[in-house]
Amino acid sequence: MPYYLNTTNEGLAFVGSVGDGYSATLKWHIAYPNNKSNSIAYHIFFATEEENVFTEGVKYISWNGSLTADVPDLVPGQLYHFAVRAVEYSSIIVNPAQLPQVNGLAVYPTTQLAADITATDTIIPLLSTEEFPPHGLIQIGVEYINYLVNDVANNNLLLTNAAIQRGFDGTIASLHDTNGFDGYQYWPTTVSFVLGLQEGNSIVFPTQDRFEFPNYPFTLVDGYHQVSKDILTTDLSASDAFNVGFAPYDYAGWYRTDPVELLSGKCVGSYIGGYQFCADGYGGVGRQLRGLSFQGHNDKRQEWGLSMTGEPVCLIRRQWTGITCPCYQASSEYQDDRCPICFGTKFVMGWTQYFNPRRSDGRIMIRPGPTDDDVKMYESGLESEFSMDIWTLTVPTLKDRDVIVRFDQDDNEEYRYEVLYVNRNRTLFRLEGMQKCKVQRVRKTDVIYQIPVFRNTRYYPTILMTDTSNALGIAPHSHTFQWSENGQGLAHQMSGVAFGHNHQISLGSDGMPFVQPVLGHTHTMNVLNTTIQFPPFVDVPIV
Fold first, then answer.
1. Which of 205, 224, 345, 492 has its CA 20 to 30 A from that of 453?
2. What are phi and psi of 295, to 5 degrees?
3. How many Cα atoms occupy the beta-carbon half-sphere of 173 within 13 Å?
4. b or e along 269-297 (b: 16 or more beta carbons within 10 Å of the residue's beta carbon)?
């Protein structure tokens, strides 16, 4: 019987999740054989219920002298209870290396009796002996039997001396029926290989099998863990779809001249004023006129006003749904704010750029209000605080944590601003009017500045598609990305979101974009041979 030097340090010492969602790591105290010529192995027990840890039997055997092991093939999210007991065996009688092996651990082969046997039989008929070693010990009921030959062809284990080999290691030889009866009581009908006698500590440790960084939560049944419903922000996708196609300002009648061209000093060959082509004259009498679209006129006038008083900026939208990043775990309350995978959003890639189909440069227009640029003294040093109020059209919808990229007069990136809150009003018929936001300047050391942004899509902007690809747990899909003829050096961006994730688009040494891999897959593209789709943009005059 094996023993420990200190009874306070026996059995299992530590158990914890490996972090891959399917394995647990175990450490235990060293045990010693009572007979110095014998060897020590360790039985590993586990179950989902603590009271069943030992009754379910030995799951794995560690026999190579190591005091640690990783238990494989567990269920993600399941709470397990583990235990380890030392077993003393003779390497002359049994050889653990001949047992079936799983990830460096041995497992006991099991079967059942093929026929009843008496207490003196030297032929043990089994249903199958294929996985049993050539010689060793088996347990039937409470009796140990030392067999010398494995007759695989006939599924028999053979003995030479029943007096010595039956009732081995101090057990009692008895008859055994196929129903588990041994002459006195019934036992489980399983016939199992054994190494020897084990000690009986009852130390049990629990642990939950879970995913830890950098492993993505993934199961074959459920795929990647993702959030499919945004319960934090207002869903205004219907408003976006309704408003994105409003007609541009028509510049007809007295307002036919573009005020941007007029006020910038460009010769327009005309004058402001006059009103012609009225509905009640010039052959238009009696024509039926359709009703006025209040929403359309409201949107077009706001866009017209922004074209003079606003400034173009890039919009990076924060993802609120999608495949979760490996830095966001059940064991932690928040995601990693400086994670290079999700950029602090908890979703893979976490951000996607919005390209305005109404402008050839892909930007949106905002109107910043007067702002105090304040520098404050803190214990850590000087800190620049800059928050401003802005307003913009009702489309695209801005949400908290969205990022606005602002540019100076030379069109160089100035700073990035994070949306703190949004104030929306409504006009008639429950329709959205405009958006007023409070934004905060972000330090340039923040991870938000690592989000790739396509700054300007002017000159034949196009929306291109990657090829179709798939990965384990992700159906075949493709992504969109923005490209233009002046895209050299400006192709670094985030692709569109599909199946809860997106990719980074980077520029290769050949000047062509390529897709960065994520979630075990990537996509290919050929810009020259890709079908080009022109969005209904309005070209932006260069002021």
1. 224
2. -65, -45
3. 17
4. eeeeeeeeeeeeeeeeeeeeeeeeeebee
* % of the chain beyond a pLDDT of 90: 39
Rounded Cα distance, 416 and 448, in Å? 8
Question: Quick one: CA dihedral 484, 488, 493, 499, positive or negative?
Answer: positive
Q: How far apart are CA 206 and CA 299, in angstroms?
A: 61
Q: Which of 359, 438, 428 is nearest to 398 (CA)?
A: 438
Nearest to 27 by CA among 207, 292, 269, 238: 207
Counting residues of the chain whose pLDDT is more than 70, the rounded percentage is: 86
The secondary structure of residue 446, as a DSSP letter, is: S
Say if residues 402 and 419 touch (Cβ distance below 8 Å). yes
Amino acid type, 11? G
DSSP state letters, 181-224: B-SSSB---EEEEE-SEE------EEEE--B-TTSPPEETTTEE
| Helix, coil or strand: residue 285 | coil
The DSSP annotation for 319-388 comes to: PSSEEBPTT--TTSSS--TT-TTTTTSSBSS-EEEE--TTBTT--EEEEEPP---EEEEETTEEEEE-EE
Angle at 290 between CA 285 and CA 294, to 5 degrees: 130
What's the length of the chain?
543
Omega within 30 of 0 (cis) for the link into 33: no
Q: Which residues share a beta bridge with 258? A: none
Q: Whole-prediction pTM value?
A: 0.56
CATH number, domain 1-94+195-210: 2.60.40.10
Query: Residue 63: how many CB atoms within 10 A of its CB?
Result: 23
Type of residue found at 426: R
CA atoms within 13 A on the CB side of 229: 1
Given a contact cutoff of 8 angstroms between Cβ atoms, the answer to whether 388 and 439 are in contact is yes
481 forms beta bridges with 464
Q: What's the pLDDT at 158?
A: 94
Going along 38-92, which residue ranges are E strands?
A: 39-47, 60-62, 68-71, 79-89
Distance (Å, whole) CA 254 – CA 272: 6
Of 47-51, 448-452, 475-479, the poorest mean pLDDT is in 448-452
Burial 378-391 (b: 16+ CB within 10 A, else e): eeeeeeeeeebebb
163 sits in the region (left: phi over 0; alpha: psi -120 to 50; else beta) called alpha
Q: How confident is the model at residue 169, as a pLDDT?
A: 85
Q: pLDDT higher for 249 or 115?
A: 115
d(CA 125, CA 178): 10
* Straight-line distance from the first to the last Cα atom of the chain, in angstroms, rounded to the nearest whole number: 91
What's the order of all strands across the beta sheet hosting 110-112?
Answer: 110-112, 190-194, 136-140, 143-147
Instruction: Give the span between the Cα atoms of 499 and 521, in whole angstroms.
Output: 13
Q: Which amino acid is at 413?
A: E
